[in-house]
Queue: 2 jobs
Job 1
Amino acid sequence: MTRALFMDPTFAANADAVLARARMGDSAALEALFRAFEGPVYNLSRRICRTTEDAEDVVQETFFEVCRSIRHFRGEGSIWGWIRTIAASKALMRLRRNKYRETDELEDEFVPMRREDTALRMDLEAALERLGETSRAVVWLHDVEGYTHEEIAAMMGRTVSFSKSQLARAHARLRRWLGEEVTA
Amino acid sequence: MTHLNMEQLVALRDAGSEPGTAAAREHIGECPLCAGELDRLHQRAARLRALPTLRPARDLWPAVDARRRQERRRRGVRWAGGAGLALAASIAAIAAVGPRSVPVESVPEPVAGEIAEARERSQALETVLDAYNPEARVIDGHTARVAQVLEDRIAALDQELQVTELERSRNAREEELLQLWRERVGLLDALVDVHVTRASRVGL
């Protein structure tokens, strides 16, 4: 199950016409496409990237690529699916480029304790933010965006078992930080 | 069977048919603790999906649009350069083989010369625009709208030019091609006026 995308009704009503004009390089149509999907693209980017600046860069790179490649989009899948894959790839590329810390173990050691830690219970936003970059990207792409482990592995250039283990580790940590652990 | 670990619970949720899945399912049916864990895993994922959508604090379209226009103009320069070389090559070929071998629909030299001239003028104006780098400058809304209209018309004209260039080999469309190049020069002249001299009236 994936997060439902509530598409801008104006765009949804004219999607075919807007896409046809966007393929011809029509500025107004490209802007309409941007306005219809900037929210979900930013959300995905911000959930994966550490900073708002990185997320904004990903949005710009994504839509620049969309403007450049829209004429190759044949409508075989949904336009959102196509844009989302570009955005996810750009966000993951940004993670690699920034050489964020790779392992969650390091995260656990070096991320300073926050107010939530002392209460031994964080809210979900804070817990998600605290996850390591890779784990957070995997949990978001899999549980929210609905990508399969095979797709995530391909986008990350890693193995399927890597994606699976990252997801399990992410959930184990979220469970602990959210205070959901139950002792037998 | 011992309790399921997180990797097994996650695998169960994905409804795969991996080894051990059947045994894990059987365990879930018998163990309320693991059933509870699986339930909490489902709930956690549902809560993740229900997190509010984050939105950018500023409008990012102007930056995307500026970059797109800059690249489109650069592509136009590269393409115009290539077309010019092709044109020069065809003229040279005609001159080399002599009048008997010239096909009926070959390029009449005066028209070809005018096309080459218009193309050179077009490239010179592109160079002026690139040197001025309008994307890096602040312009008022009216100027931006006029520039956008001109750039869109140039882009549409470039598509027409490409088609006409491709069809040149099959049809004698030199006059049409010349007309298109002249129109492109006119539009670029107007764009240079808008950006460089900030002329508010460009006769649109």
Note: Residues 64 and 70 of chain B are 10 Å apart (CA to CA).
Job 2
Amino acid sequence: MSVLTSNATAPVANVRRARPARPWLTPARIGIYGFLIISAAFFLLPLYVMIATSLKTMDQIRLGAIFSLPTTPEIDAWIQAWSSACTGLECRGIRVGFWNSVRIVVPSTIISILAGALNGYALSFWRSRWADWLFTVLILGAFIPYQVFLYPMVRGLAFFGLFGSLSGIVIVHTVFGMPVMTLLFRNYYASLPQELFKAARIDGGGFWRIFFQLMIPMSTPILIVAVILQVTNIWNDFLFGLVFAGRENQPMTVQLNNVINSTTGERLYNVNMAATILTSLVPLVIYLVSGRWFVRGIAAGAVKG
Amino acid sequence: MSSVVIEQLHVRLGHSDILKDLDLRVENGEFLVLLGPSGCGKSTLLHAVAGLVDVTDGAIWIDGNDVTWTDPKDRSIGMVFQSYALYPTMNVERNMSFGLRINGTPKPEIDQRVQRAASMLQLTSLLARKPSQLSGGQRQRVAIGRAIVRDAGVFLLDEPLSNLDAKLRSELRRELKQLHLNLGTTMIYVTHDQTEAMTLASRIAVMLEGKIQQIGTPSEVYDQPVNRFVAGFLGSPTMNFIAGSLVQEGSRMRWRSPALSLDLTDYAFAGQARAAEKVVLGLRPEHVALVASDQPADGRATVSLSEPMGANIVLWLDLEGHQIAVDTESHVTHKRGDTLGLRVDPRRVSLFDAESGLRV
């Protein structure tokens, strides 16, 4: 930095060997920007279609021009999707699913992150040569298709009388969040200087005190990463919600599926689009908001200056 | 203030013996420096005293109590690490008071102790800062403050100055010495820097391969090294070693090499002096006097290189194909190729057995 500044303030006469100016518009640059614009359009187009369609009236939708702007934008479809769309026999809208999802996501995220952090903290002390093997096995655990676990999980939860209950689905999400959460936190804690932990031991800190008073406050950046991962994963989950949550607690994704599949007569595209956007709103907001916090978290947790 | 006694300490990590049958006694209020190259076990020894490394065999006593299997927190120690190891989320005040807060010391007493330590270390104006807002020197002071606040009987310092730049290092070194004079606390200090060892220590323990090679005051270790390793480890430029032999000439002993010959009447032999084939002469650069080549001398050499150091000049001489360093005053200039006479005071030299490396 200082080199740059001193160059910038140097007298103009001293600029002898300035880099020769290059033309701004080169074929490579055109290629790069062309690619970026096309990719952006590719990903934004569906979103545009969804938003436009959700604001159209059914009359306009029937015309079939899916890329056209709504002639008379209306939010009726959104209101209907939220509060009165039919999910099967009930017609109370997608909001039921929204609150169910919140009830599932909040405890699942908190419990799985706490358990993962604790696990990772304990494992970060274990530095034998078998440790790497265990972590390989752990990461494999995260890649086994969930369908494999379905039947045993159902039987297991049923045995404890938790099948089809809120606690049941929370347990399932916690269990399946464990491999990634544990690895995430173990790698983070293993990268912290060991001397920090030694100093805390000399100061008289025990296992739990060091965990809660030293490690957790230092974990801000990794906690944010974990929250993003867990909230989006659990919110987007369909399979476990469908199987384990039971009729009363079906999450928003399952309800969305019901809204779209339980039409009688005409398909209400505008309502379906609105319901879909509403369902994806939470992960979307998480991503948009967390970017800033993510950077802040890293800056706050910086050990070296 | 506490004494530290280490008996027959054995530390094995994995399959290698880091420390073997080590005995050490650190007196009340002493400043003991553990000096040695990396991997000599000095840090392991310190961590064993702190209770951070499990001992395989032997015993550690602090202040008359057997603490071999005691928790680090109950050993009445304070430790300062090379990387400072400050708690990054806590400010200076909370960093220093962490230990006291854990064991439930009343708030007014915590405040009083923190204030006392802070004023001792000129940290009073920085108490509300986070470690990331401090300079390296300030961070290390906070780490020292943590030990002071805990009223530790023994301070364990693990290369505390190694992460600082040269100027700051000598500044903090002086402060540390002053602090030791003021507090009078027993300190054990690990370093590989001989300057720190010489300047700070009441006694230096020079270590190699898990063993203490020599322990003594800085001048003992410097002037009477027990073996070639200790002799070569201390001093800069390092001691000159010249191969030769001991010969009996009537009632007196002489050390002889092709280029140099010394009368050893005044040399303090470590044991019984007897003629031997291979004996290495250890000669500190500052203990060689140069005279004009026509003056009587113990040997002659030609100048091959000079290194001006500011206060003095290190002159490299060719002694029959052997390069030796000699400290000279800076105002005398010698040209390359000049022949000079060497005069050596036999009371200041060291003789080592060429095979065992032990002092003769």
Note: Residues 1-11, 300-305 of chain A have pLDDT under 50 and may be disordered.
